């Protein structure tokens, strides 16, 4: 990967000066297309050993581009103060479509560093690279393009340069990303590992570009040219073809009976009032105790509620609410996205609500909207919702890896019970606001929702974040089952 | 303030049950008007001793209202982990217009608690209440209404109830806001202090409502009724009358010569290239050193750039950028607000970018937009920009109190120099994007801007955050002055 970069590459200062004005103009023209189209954002990852000029390239690009639509995205190594999942900080700073972000200290940083220091085993390192590849594929599919630049500098040369810095020959701050890697042993190791990583994570859509960095002019001109090429290719992308909005891509013969996972539920399950009062209090008390326990300070709880209209999401959340300290949880009702949310990948609206450790986030409808309502109502194409299963599994795996307990409920009722509840909402004054004419219309799509739920459960019920289908025909039974499930999962996780 | 609450207040369970459905319906109707109008948000502050039922009232309101437009805003006491200004967390969670937030642990919490524990002197306490009053007045004027409820409970009764909790008689979590206040001495002191505070901060627009809390039904019915009354009064507010969009409210006789603070500047100041190179490097180096010093870890730097078009904001920021570690600063170009920003008070868009300690935020145009472009271009009325001076002074005072160094620059050039630079932008290809026809048109408003700048400097150049007017006719002189000012201010602050 780094072979050709080890040879001398040079660009005359005069030649650089001569090419700079037109490169600059072309870059601006291309950047304006990105801004105008607002279809994509672009993140430029700049990596390489300390001394290769990561900060200098960043500053050069700032000199060339329109800085008003440019963001610097720079991250330190993960540290003890990060009390959210590792990927949260990257999500949080994703630039909106139309903008460019230049990133130092990307998601490659920690695995490369840890592996070079031998704090990470080879298998884990390869798994981390796999995760990164999937993450980058998701970004690309969701509108965030990547330009990955590796500044190559011979380790000896890098060492010489860094010595110059500490001796005060240079006045400018140098981003010392690799401070942990002292001495030439780990640094050589880093080089070898980086080469492997760059090879392994060079995909068709997001390849690494190795830029020889010994010569400043060559380095900057090359970085600028790569950026120009990337921006031009983005501008030339055809408008995405309208996807066929099919509610279900599986074309099975209609003679085959369709299976619904919901049909397996015994909706006659119920609880009498005394049992309900007792069990509800008991489960609330368990949840109170568990979320107040010292172990929960290093964990988190993320609960997603899905279900048919009128299945009892709100009233169940109300019972859960009473078990939790109001200072340490938030309920997030998921409605139409804001413009800040629309300008970023789908999962951004959920990532932004992931709480710190010791806290709970309750989602009243969730990231499963894409494979439920958006699929059934044809609000997005099969490419989008078809891809969402994997993206969601990755999202939940990242939460789980950061010690968050992810609990997901589908609250199920029969169509008859739903009709009965709708009618009740029509007659009881303070329930009327909960019913719209649309709710009645949606009932026609019941079979489509059943198919969507079945596929959703099959594809996203993982060991770390299994689905719990809740028989909610009897409200009391449903509520107790939800609270008990949460208490059990917490107990299991906190030991 | 608490006199009448000390007498017995009681509501029959049966009477409560009888009134609940219509109260609930009325609340929902009134809430929907708030949602529809989207003109205001409402924050319900619930205060009172532990045991009075703050959490219970919150849960009751959740049972009555449409929870999809309801947020819980709950805050712990300030702690060492808060490395932003004290008010930042309240700003961050402000609900958008159309929504209701119920707040426990509000901005009253820390002063009341500290004063009850005698950790705060009387004078400081009164000053804190003053600050709160101004903050609340700002919220009200900016579209955030407050309903402040004090749950009154006799201290002895509160003690008895809390003992019950610790003995496990109650299963529900109780928000223990006042855990620090153990024993009856501090608790009685808290009561007296709270009474003073409630009296002092009961203003016309945001009075305290004292609700006797010994009887659950009475308490909840009263809280619900107060909320209903408040929502109805908000709904009945007339549409704000369009303000006369006068660029300048001061109607002085035109025979009086107008004074411009900018006319006092000697724009002939300049630096030759050698001096420039040397001094620039020197000031950059000072800034690098100061922002990397251990003392800066408990401080922060907020820099605001304003100035005429083409005065050199971007190119100056570029020089500042090179002095800073890219991991620890962000530049925020201020453009049109997003819909999330428009749905909240004006300063919210700036508060959200205030960094943690140890970091720098650079604003390319800033919160002064309201008293500059918005005033001159008549984008808001004189009420709005007239009020902004005080709001901005409070904002900067809060930053300064939290150890942030606030540095503000107006980059000044002559109209002739601006014309020259505009023409240069027209001819140099890569500068063309920086010029729009609007820029030429804006030149006609030069005298209006001079008047606005003069008033702005007079009213917001404070000891803690003075304005620095920068003679930028000579770019080199201007850049060095900016960097030197930042270095001086940092040096002075960090000692």
TrEMBL record, chains A, B:
It comes from the Bacteria. The keyword Nuclease does not apply. Pfam families: PPK2. One of its GO terms (biological process) is ATP biosynthetic process. Residues 12-231, 271-492 form the Polyphosphate kinase-2-related domain. Keywords: ATP synthesis. The keyword Plastid does not apply. Gene3D superfamilies: P-loop containing nucleotide triphosphate hydrolases. One of its GO terms (molecular function) is polyphosphate:AMP phosphotransferase activity. It catalyses: [phosphate](n) + ATP = [phosphate](n+1) + ADP. This is Polyphosphate:AMP phosphotransferase. It comes from Xanthobacter flavus. The lineage of its organism: Bacteria, Pseudomonadati, Pseudomonadota, Alphaproteobacteria, Hyphomicrobiales.
């Amino acid at each position: 990967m780094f072979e050709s970069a080890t040879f001398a590459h040079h660009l005359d200062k005069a030649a650089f000066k001569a090419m700079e004005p037109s490169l600059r103009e072309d870059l601006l023209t291309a950047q304006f297309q990105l801004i105008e189209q607002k279809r994509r954002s672009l993140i430029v990852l700049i990596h390489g050993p300390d001394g290769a000029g990561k900060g200098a390239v960043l500053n050069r690009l700032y000199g060339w581009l329109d800085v008003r639509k440019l963001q610097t995205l720079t991250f330190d190594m993960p540290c003890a103060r990060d009390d959210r999942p590792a990927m949260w900080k990257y999500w949080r700073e994703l630039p909106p479509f139309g903008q460019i972000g230049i990133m130092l200290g990307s998601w490659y940083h920690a695995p490369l560093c840890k592996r070079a220091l031998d704090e990470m085993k080879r298998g884990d390192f390869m798994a981390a690279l796999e995760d990164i590849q999937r993450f980058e594929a998701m970004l690309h599919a969701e509108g965030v393009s990547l330009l990955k630049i590796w500044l190559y500098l011979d380790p000896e040369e890098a060492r010489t340069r860094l010595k110059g810095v500490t001796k005060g020959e240079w006045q400018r701050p140098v981003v010392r990303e690799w401070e942990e890697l002292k001495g030439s042993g780990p640094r050589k190791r880093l080089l070898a590992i980086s080469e492997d990583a760059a090879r392994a994570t060079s995909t068709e859509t997001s390849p690494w570009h190795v830029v020889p960095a010994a010569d400043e002019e060559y380095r900057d001109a090359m970085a600028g040219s790569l950026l120009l090429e990337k921006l031009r290719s983005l501008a030339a992308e055809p408008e995405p073809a309208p996807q066929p909005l099919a509610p279900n891509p599986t074309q099975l013969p209609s003679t085959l009976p369709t299976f619904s996972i919901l049909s397996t539920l015994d909706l006659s399950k119920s609880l009498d009032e005394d049992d309900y009062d007792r069990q509800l209090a008991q489960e609330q008390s368990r949840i109170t105790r568990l979320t107040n326990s010292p172990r929960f300070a290093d964990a988190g709880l993320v609960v997603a509620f899905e279900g048919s209209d009128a299945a009892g999401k709100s009233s169940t959340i109300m019972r859960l609410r009473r078990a939790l300290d109001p200072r340490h949880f938030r309920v997030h009702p998921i409605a139409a996205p804001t413009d800040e949310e629309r300008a970023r990948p789908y999962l951004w609206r959920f990532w932004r609500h992931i709480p710190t450790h010791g806290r709970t986030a309750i989602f009243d409808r969730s990231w499963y909207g894409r494979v439920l309502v958006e699929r059934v109502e044809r609000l997005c194409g099969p490419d989008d919702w078809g891809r969402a299963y994997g993206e969601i599994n990755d999202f939940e795996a990242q939460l789980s890896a950061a010690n968050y307990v992810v609990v997901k409920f589908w609250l199920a009722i029969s169509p008859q019970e739903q009709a009965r509840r709708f009618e009740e909402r029509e007659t009881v004054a303070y329930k009327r606001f909960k019913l719209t004419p649309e709710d009645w219309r949606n009932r026609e799509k019941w079979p489509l929702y059943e198919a969507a739920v079945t596929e959703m459960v099959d594809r996203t019920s993982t060991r770390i974040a299994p689905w719990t289908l809740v028989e909610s025909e009897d409200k009391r039974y449903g509520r107790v089952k939800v609270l008990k499930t949460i208490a059990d999962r917490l107990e299991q996780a906190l030991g």
